[in-house]
DNA sequence: GCAAGCTTTGAATCGCATT
DNA sequence: AAATGCGATTCAAAGCTTG
């Protein structure tokens, strides 16, 4: 079945509000849609962040928190009820060979994943969106929260879902597409703004939806997004020749989404190129060599002429007498220089003499890069 | 408290089977351990029912591998009970400021995460272990499952957990450590083998435990691993000068673990030292700089961009027009910020330009420290 | 006009010791 | 137990201003 035939077939078979945004509660609107009628459901539900007081950056400016009412739930139990409700309707609407995608963070994704399994879906993969430019942890109290998690599930273990394996492999330079994807957060020209401020606090990047729709739908397939927001799903679906249905409560988001999707054009060659993520730069931190046993804490390093010496500590810092710091900082401090490339400055001794620690970095890269 | 003192203190305070492996069911053995007695629990529980074999109900009976829908529910329910049971005991044993780490895959991590939250733990981060050399998806039916997920949680929202921020930042070449970590899977010399075959199917890499223990424990802290397997947690704990307790049912794993840990060498105490936060440095009152002549009353200070200026008074307060106060208070007031670090906010002019007054503090510390 | 530097910002569960 | 004071804390990308 070709593209056009498929579209005609889908339209004829059921009465769906295709390529439209429905305003209101997502569960109520889903109740109005027929059984087994959509090919994919992409959902970006509220994360239930449970944020505390105000957060200030080191420079004194305030972080613009997600404090919208739609993200507030009284208890985990209330959030679980909400999740079960929309997942149940979604399952009824989904075709037997359709798939579900949900995105979330550690605040909600475990509850969502449990509910997905309890509702009878079969998880196919969890996917990590690694943010190339996440917001830092300003207070230095935790690890930088640098990713979000997506769940991809079919309606059951035996379902024959769509997975465009070749397309994914091609997109990834002839290597199987992995479960960790790197994209920047949504910003720049792509980020919808009104009067200088963002329209939606959590707009998703089109690159993310592009990969999902390309991987798991065929041209003409119908994608339902019950938390449509500013319509990333609709915009990408239109560009990729897929049909879409959006549901959202907020008139402001709906207006912005309609305008955006109207302006979206079917994809051309040049756009494909820009949508692809740049290949991740292999970057090796000095600490990795220690964690991986290429260099032992307690090892003594020297510069090439053995004028300075320092001892490696467990955290990858170096110690020289009363001074200590990273390989770069300590090298600079000892030389009285403004900066120093620790990789080429510091050397270790092996059977064949003195070698720069950069040699160990090369060894590590060779051992770990495909 | 130094390393040795800390170890003595911990040993004296409670009667723990330190640096030993307990053979048998983890929940039963945990019941024998005292309340609030360990600093960290690292758990690598069985991942899933469908993979079969090593999942047991709390009563010790084995869960059958089944694929019927209602049985699936039965299976999930059994897994949830099992998870709640060990998490509950773990919580009782954990010190109020201790933390929990759990590792899992999409088969079980959502259920575990939900149980962690329901038990009252407070999730601090979820961490992604990105495998640099994952097993490919042979059939080409899904994305390559190239990661596992870890959950890091405290006992509650207000708990004051250990996080060695500076050590992590140093380990990562002076950038904040992110929530996505890349390591190779466990192989090569590190992988325990007997007669050419691997001893344990899911042996974790030491690099993973190294980062966890370095980030979230102090030397001498006690780590409990209720699913000890071949003892990666124990081997790394010994290396890093931490104490450990392991629990496992399988005699084969216990033997291998004991041999392995006996062969592990503790690092020299000086190498275990990590970079400290400035908070751990001795405090210097601003007034000390004036009393010691490093800064003269009447000196004009400005911020880095010279937007505000203030005059140093004899008592170490600053004056700016009608406002005055400590270096911190005045900095905060002028910016309209809730707080301000006066040491880095205020600058003085010397021959080479504008410098933060923190430079003077460093000069003072260097001159007065032994 | 272009380069260099400065400013802003992004789904965030973001301090701690003393009084 | 609650309030107060000290002072620790950010990365990458985009947009804008200055030279």
TrEMBL record, chains A, B:
Its EC number is 2.1.1.-. Gene3D superfamilies: Vaccinia Virus protein VP39. Residues 269-367 form the RAMA domain. Residues 38-259 form the DNA methylase N-4/N-6 domain. The keyword Cytoplasm does not apply. Signal peptide: none annotated. It catalyses: a 2'-deoxyadenosine in DNA + S-adenosyl-L-methionine = an N(6)-methyl-2'-deoxyadenosine in DNA + S-adenosyl-L-homocysteine + H(+). Keywords: DNA replication, DNA-binding, Methyltransferase, S-adenosyl-L-methionine, Transferase. The keyword Methyltransferase applies. InterPro entries: DNA_methylase_N4/N6, DNA_methylase_N6_adenine_CS, RAMA, RM_Methyltransferase, SAM-dependent_MTases_sf. Belongs to the N(4)/N(6)-methyltransferase family. PANTHER family: RNA METHYLASE-RELATED, TRNA (GUANINE(10)-N2)-METHYLTRANSFERASE HOMOLOG. This is Methyltransferase. It comes from Sphingomonas colocasiae. The lineage of its organism: Bacteria, Pseudomonadati, Pseudomonadota, Alphaproteobacteria, Sphingomonadales.
